[in-house]
Design goal:
By secondary structure, the chain is of the alpha+beta class. Helix content is 33%, strand content 41%. Strands 2-3-1-4 form a 4-stranded antiparallel β-sheet, covered by helices on one side. A 3-stranded antiparallel β-sheet has the order 5-6-7. A hairpin with a 2-residue loop joins strand 5 and strand 6.
């Protein structure tokens, strides 16, 4: 599973939201551009279907990155898409404290990410890739792996 550094709850005011409307970019290119942006350090990249002038269907590409990555993101967008302009603005992100706990299932160990707000766990999410690997390796449905993770978590919580 590897070691996970502690992530304390904090407000990050050094983030940028970058967006561009695309009306003539093939889907394959969009997938490629997303990979490039993520590899270059974008925190998140996503697409939303939109309607543009003259009711033309298009795609809104949005990404989140640190301020220091902005120029690199713009460079990729101008080089790899058909856009003539990019919008960007500062954004504040409230990040929860994160920690990991291990849960034993019949098929192996799964890490569960916990989000903590003011000292209380408010989010829990089993690590999908580990659950998927266990499901494939053991020929069990993915939902069964998740069910067992949640069952084990609830039992641990009842003990405390």
């Amino acid at each position: 599973m590897g070691n996970h550094p502690p992530h304390h709850e904090h407000i990050d005011e050094q983030m940028m939201k970058v967006e561009v409307n695309l009306d003539d970019t093939p889907g394959e290119w969009l997938g490629y551009v997303m990979e490039l942006l993520l590899e270059a350090g974008a925190n998140d990249v996503f697409y939303t279907p939109i309607y543009m002038k003259k009711n033309r269907p298009g795609v809104l590409l949005q990404l989140l990155c640190s301020r220091k990555k902005l120029e690199q993101m713009k460079e990729i967008l101008f080089r790899e898409t058909t856009t003539l302009g990019v919008r960007y603005y500062p954004l504040t992100v409230h990040r929860l404290e994160r920690r990991f706990r291990e849960v034993q299932t019949d098929w192996g160990t799964v890490a569960v990410k916990e989000g903590i707000h003011r000292g209380q766990v408010v989010q829990r999410a089993p690590e999908f890739e580990q659950c998927k690997a266990i499901a494939k390796a053991n020929g069990v449905p993915l939902k069964k792996v998740y069910e067992q993770v949640w069952k084990q978590l609830n039992e641990k919580l009842e003990e405390n």
